[in-house]
Amino acid sequence: MKRSHRARPAGDTPDLQMAPLIDAVFLLLTYFLFTISLATIEGLLPSELALGDDFREEKLDLDRKEREVVVRMVQTGSRVQYFINDWPAFGFENVRSRLDDLSASDIVVIDPGPTVGYEHVVRLYNYCLRAGVERVVFPLASTATATPRL
Amino acid sequence: MIDMAFLLITFFIMSIRFGQQGEELVKLPDADQAREVTDERVELVTVNITRKGGFVIGGTDHSAGEVLAYLRARKEEGGDLEVVIRGDKASEFSAIQRVMRMSAEAGISDVSLAALQREPGEELE
Fold this sequence. Notes:
The complex is a heterodimer.
Chain A: H1 18-38, E1 42-50, E2 68-76, E3 79-84, E4 87-89, H2 91-100, E5 107-112, H3 118-130, E6 135-139
Parallel strand pairs in A: 1-6, 2-5, 5-6
Antiparallel strand pairs in A: 2-3, 3-4
Chain B: H1 2-22, E1 30-31, E2 43-49, E3 55-57, E4 60-62, H2 64-76, E5 81-87, H3 93-105, E6 110-117
Parallel strand pairs in B: 1-6, 2-5, 5-6
Antiparallel strand pairs in B: 2-3, 3-4
């Protein structure tokens, strides 16, 4: 088959069509801009359910070396009050300094009251993981309405 | 001309998607320790919790009883299940705890809390 071939004059450079090139660049730019915005990825904070009486009774190991810290959260107006092992903590900073002393094998029980904002719970949980505490549990029935030890 | 048409189509498609996201009922809290799921053997069951404490699964509102029935049905189907709780950051913890209880009642012990991933050190809201 004879291929048609148009000879290009010597010294003549090929024309570069700029208009479709710019269109394509804009198209790609739009696509990447939108995908970058959508790339606010959701992640997961895995948790372990502290199964209560209704489901499974956990054996109490008296010889265990790890410490257990119960952080109770009580919503009072627009603020959240924290209690560490029933002792009041003065603000989230106080809770953070207490969590910084824990090791990976220690257990943190986060016990928020029913009206505590989920955002505050996630903030505390996130900080536990940041402090290196691997065992963070949530009780299935809140005790945060109980009277704190003062 | 065709290029421009494609550009406009792309823009409008993206705009529509963004419009739907803006109306999304759940605004997740931020967490720099949130991680992606790497184990593909685990099947995720997502329960959304709205600001007012309503339960939404697959875009449909459900009562607590329906959520429990759904979780039980999924558990009976077998396989490794993990419940992902996508709670609105302004929702109350009682709703989250309720889903946790229902998960336990359905025999699902793995429960995760969804959050928007942030870089470590990035200031959280």
